[in-house]
């Protein structure tokens, strides 16, 4: 009986020590890096494979199948010289474009439109394919916002520029032509993408 009592006391004394053991840190988010070589210089993107898996996998398929090679940065929406976004991609070219993907809102992924964020262009949710934007300056208005009326799902951000924002700034401030689909926003001399390759 005394032996049992001593074991019980020992167990109770050990319990607080066990409770103080720090919890294991959550696993780091899995990412992938892609280097985009352009006629204006190189850009390195870090993509959120675990947080935005569908959108990241879509972009990586364009990269791995070399569908972005030879495409261009064709559009710039410049609010100020340091705020706006640039757009690039396949522009629905039949031999390059892949099927649309499911929309991943920022409320689901936690990947937001910070300065340098890469996001996928879309019309209605679920129509995004092979055209992408890069934000210059934080743009939370592009995030999903359930408090808004109508289509409040925003755009699907899935990574950010980690090297080469100087190149993005040059593209943002490139001269534009007055014609084209987006009047006053089409780059007069589009910036060519020479290659896009994984570097991880």
UniProtKB/TrEMBL annotation:
Annotated signal peptide: 1-19
The entry's keywords: Isomerase, Rotamase, Signal
GO molecular function term, any single one: peptidyl-prolyl cis-trans isomerase activity
Keyword Iron on entry: no
Keyword Signal: yes
Pfam entry (one): Pro_isomerase
Domain PPIase cyclophilin-type: residue ranges: 41-198
EC number in record: 5.2.1.8
InterPro entries: Cyclophilin-like_dom_sf, Cyclophilin-type_PPIase_dom, Cyclophilin_A-like
PROSITE patterns assigned: CSA_PPIASE_2 (PS50072)
Origin superkingdom: Bacteria
Name of the molecule in the record: peptidylprolyl isomerase
Species, as recorded: Sphingomonas molluscorum
